[in-house]
Amino acid sequence: MIPGVSYLLLVASLAAFVGCLFIASLVTGPAGISFWDSLEALAMGREGAASIVMQEIRLPRAILGVLIGASLGLSGAALQGYLRNPLAEPGLLGISSSASLGAVLAIYTGLSAAFSLALPLMALLGAVGAVLLVRILAGNQAATISLILAGVAVTSFAGAMTSLMLNLSPNPFAALEIVFWMLGSLKDRSMTHVWLCLPFILIGWAMMFQAGRALDALTLGEEAAASLGFRMDRVQALVVLGTAASVGAATSVAGAIGFIGLVVPHILRPLVGAKPSRLLLASALGGAGVLLAADVAVRLVAPDRDLKLGVLTALVGAPFFLWLIFQQRRAAL
Fold first, then answer.
1. pTM of the full predicted structure?
2. Is 26 within 8 Å of 39 (Cβ atoms)?
């Protein structure tokens, strides 16, 4: 099969997979609305309980599933391509942990109770602060190892501060809210959350896709990529800032959802060949599909217990991570 044709077939298959799961997300829930009634209530926009459920509860949840899953998959592929490290994922730069710290600060101080959008806005500020700090610590011309070390330092500090606020939480209800938010979920999200995160996510996507050709050149090494006319400081800015914008916005509205940015690129990499630029779009679609599937699963597995999305992705992703480490050890022998 012609490589270009096989890639287009893969992208089309992933897009169809996402489309099917998007519909499944729309029609799955405890409201007891039939399949056709769900679609009719969404399409016709009539008044009634079914229309409220579809337009104000399920539709925002499905849209966020696509946006957040695609952001995690895309940023994981971009970081793995830039750092040339198969273990790289969005949390490596401290963006997710710092966004979580901002959200926890909003809960701890009571801002989230006084102003409903304080939590996602504080999380966005946390993500922005993280990427600025990483860039300052690593420097514009820094090697990838410096970027990784700076990210680890920011992640550790944000995690410590989050634990401190959890430890000093003024009451058990605030502590419970912090823990539940950190587990990650798309439940009770509205179109307000969609419009809040959408501009940042789209900007992040545009930046990471711009780095596609440079990531292809980086497979030959940094010196070879520079000799081909690619500025490494610009590539670093596109990948790091793009990841910060998209993953920071995703974390601000859904909490911390791990492993998708690590697992999805690894599953799809053998199917796209040796070109990281091709992996970007495939990972975005794959991430959207995986997150939608996980969100449908949490509604089916434990509909009355509010199983958190981040818990399910961790249960699936952690064994894969261990398998990946084992494969790396075998390859090194």
1. 0.88
2. yes
Q: Which amino acid is at 242?
A: G
Q: Cα–Cα distances in Å, from 302 out to 117, 184, 294, 297, 299?
A: 28, 16, 12, 8, 6
The residue to which tokens 């391509």 are assigned: 81
Tokens of 120: 């996602």
Query: Hey, what are 289's tokens?
Result: 């599909």
The CA distances from residue 198 to 64, 77, 116, in Å, are 9, 20, 18
Query: Contact at 8 Å (CB) between 98 and 157?
Result: no
**Burial class of residue 72, CB neighbours in 10 A (0-12, 13-18, 19+):** buried
Query: CA–CA separation, 301 vs 42, rounded Å?
Result: 25
Q: Which of 43, 30, 98 is nearest to 243 (CA)?
A: 98
Q: What is the pLDDT of residue 1?
A: 44
> Of the candidates 125, 132, 116, which has an alpha carbon nearest to the alpha carbon of residue 200?
125
- State the virtual CA torsion across 138, 72, 250, 128 in degrees, nearest 10: 10
Nearest to residue 82, comparing CAs of 214, 202, 204, 210?
Answer: 214
Contact between 42 and 168 (Cβ < 8 Å)? no
Q: Write out pLDDT tens, residues 12-65.
A: 999 999 999 999 998 887 767 766 777 777 777 666 777 777 888 888 999 999
